[in-house]
Design a protein that fits this description.
With 313 residues, this protein is an alpha/beta fold. 36% of the residues lie in helices and 15% in strands. This is Hydroxyphenylpyruvate reductase.
Length: 313
């Protein structure tokens, strides 16, 4: 399969990049400053695209690759792939579900604890020597807090089980109620936010969920509420979030994703009640290797005419 052209949409995992180079003829899209010239030169060579949460295969790229057969995403999210065009052209699509579920749920709990217990600020307090001048201020407990989850898929369920271990009442909002669960269901995000102290975004990004966290939802969560986003940055209207945090209309936030990554609103950098992470929900060595193996496995299965491991389209 060394002669099969694979386009890697942006820099990703070193292991994945090295394995792609061993097994395929790899093109690193970011190495070519003139993208139009590159596509014009290699458009008939590339049969696969590997993307992730940052860059995938939009309609324009797909139209410029007439030999494209498969898009294998190094991510669960599919918002960077034009799925409709892939279906129209018979292009297969795969992603990396399940293997990152536990890590992302772990990080969500970590962000909640870090915000409520002010762990990052406490660390700075010790390092700066301020502890010698007096004890650190009191913070807020996590155990027993009501947790609302937007999206109760694999990651949402894993998060709910972890939060239950902290004796937290669980509520959720999804498109339809899940009759097998004992958690409280609310048909709208505003209602969910009104009935929880911690609101976690764990749903897929679609046109319907873009800016699902808006001013109304933030105000419903209230000045003691905490927002945690482990979904996509565009789930949250960042301008409204900044306004609420600066104005005291929201108690705090733990954010792993942002609207314009890696750009982050400067206001966040000055707020002590905000914990920021650089989109590392799946960022452990073990999980990123498992994700890479799924990407490679799907590509090899396709080109060997075997069933795909994790087909989406």
């Amino acid at each position: 399969m060394e002669s099969i052209g694979v386009l890697m949409a942006c820099p990703m995992n070193t292991y994945l990049e090295q394995e792609l180079e061993k097994r395929f003829f790899l093109f690193k899209f970011w190495d070519f400053p003139d993208k139009a010239l590159f596509l014009d030169t290699h458009r008939n060579t590339i049969r696969a695209v590997v993307g992730n949460a940052t860059a995938g295969a939009d309609g324009e790229l797909i139209d410029n690759l007439p030999k494209l057969e498969i898009v294998s995403s190094f991510s669960v999210g599919l918002d960077k792939i034009d799925l409709a065009k892939c279906r129209e052209k018979g292009i297969r699509v795969t992603n990396t579900p399940d293997v990152l579920t536990e890590d992302v749920a772990d990080l969500a709990i970590g962000l909640i604890l870090a915000v409520l217990r002010r762990l990052c600020e406490s660390d700075r307090y010790v390092r700066s020597g301020k502890w010698k001048k007096g004890d650190y201020k009191l913070t807020t407990k996590f155990t027993g807090k009501s947790v609302g989850i937007i999206g109760l898929g694999r990651i949402g369920m894993a998060l709910a089980k972890r939060a239950e271990a902290f004796s937290c009442p669980i509520s959720y909002c999804t498109r339809t109620k899940k009759p097998s669960l004992n958690y409280n269901y609310y048909p709208s995000v505003v209602e969910l936010a009104s009935h929880c102290q911690i609101l976690v975004v764990a749903c897929s990004l679609t046109e319907e969920t873009r800016h699902i966290i808006n001013r109304e939802v933030i105000d419903a969560l209230g000045p003691k509420g905490v927002l945690v986003n482990i979904g996509r940055g565009t789930h949250v209207d960042e301008r409204e979030l900044v306004s609420a945090l600066v104005g005291g209309r929201l108690g705090g936030a733990g954010l792993d994703v942002f609207e314009h990554e890696p750009e982050v609103p400067e206001e966040f950098l000055c707020l002590e009640n905000v914990v920021l992470a650089p989109h590392v929900g799946s960022g452990t060595m073990e999980t990123r290797k498992s994700m890479g193996d799924l990407v490679l496995g799907n590509l090899e299965a396709h080109f060997l005419n075997k069933p795909l491991l994790t087909p989406v389209v």
